[in-house]
Records
---
Amino acid sequence: MSDVLNAIGIATPENLDDNIFRDLWTVTSPQIADILPYILMVLILIFRPYGLFGNRDA
């Protein structure tokens, strides 16, 4: 996760013990894999509330 955060421009803190987000820097991909589909579903519903294909006109 630290590689992703560094790629988007968030620098790694020097002392992780004092940082309130210290657990975020140590998250691994297998830990995210279980919740990732739900995060993607929520993001799609936020930005496309009618779904990926929109309304169907009858």
---
Amino acid sequence: MMTTPKKELAVAALQNGTVIDRIPSSALFKAVRILGIEKLDKHVTIGNNLESKKLGTKGIIKVADTFFPEDVLNRIALIAPTAKINIIRDFDVVEKFPVVLPQTIIGIVKCDNPKCITNNEPMKTRFELIDPKERVIRCHYCGHSVNAKEAQIK
């Protein structure tokens, strides 16, 4: 008698909503914070340290009945440039696209320069992408530069 190996989904299927896949495990909870998922009243499934052929381990976020604007999803490119977005309708993937690091990042990254006005006045930070290949961003106010993967998320 021959048995065939069964594959199981590590995270339950989603009828309608958004799936954010291929998030590096170390960046998963930063992605949750950037997207404000902890404030949603929808069904949310978060999987971490899941097996991944491309990343070794990965995180995944599934949010039922929620479709984020693309500019909001692209914010996670700061910390998860490998992330892929899947839009699900009636259990089928109807759209799939990678995240893209935005040219301007407002109110997400904390400036590391203690003298920066954003650390001393009640105002939103603003960073510009100055090197897309190396993912370097620069503070609009003080000129301090940082690699996106090392950026301190608010």
---
Amino acid sequence: MFDKFGEMSSYKEINTLAENLFNENDIENLKEMAKENGIPEDFVELYLSGDIMELCDAETAAYGKIDAEVTDLKLKGIMEDWVEYLRVQISDNDLLAHQVRKKGKSLKDCIAALLKWSFKNQVPVDKEILKAAEVTAGKVTLGIPNMGKAKEIIRNYYLGGEKE
């Protein structure tokens, strides 16, 4: 995922490398670094033309990391919803944007935290619902967190004990 340039821990690291590559006139590697970090091509073009002074901000860097991770994970269903919820939270919370970008934090581990909660909190599905769904299994359990709980789990994973 971050094979050539490594995982960068902040938008500042991305911008420093972008500036160095730009100053060295190494536009090919600048574009490759941006792509590896999920920075949109139009941001690269704006940066190269001088229309923006930095390649990215904390929010863009966080989205970029999430986008790069999503490509590798091939998420489906509720997991896609969790990612979209994370994106919304990033836009509302600067600290979360910074934490998402940090080395050692990953979407994979965030989804794992949500799944751990899901398995630990399974509840039986009512027999009438099973009947209506034409499910013939004797017992079915389900443990998907509601959005409030998902928000809590996501924030706890990325923010830990840090204040917002």
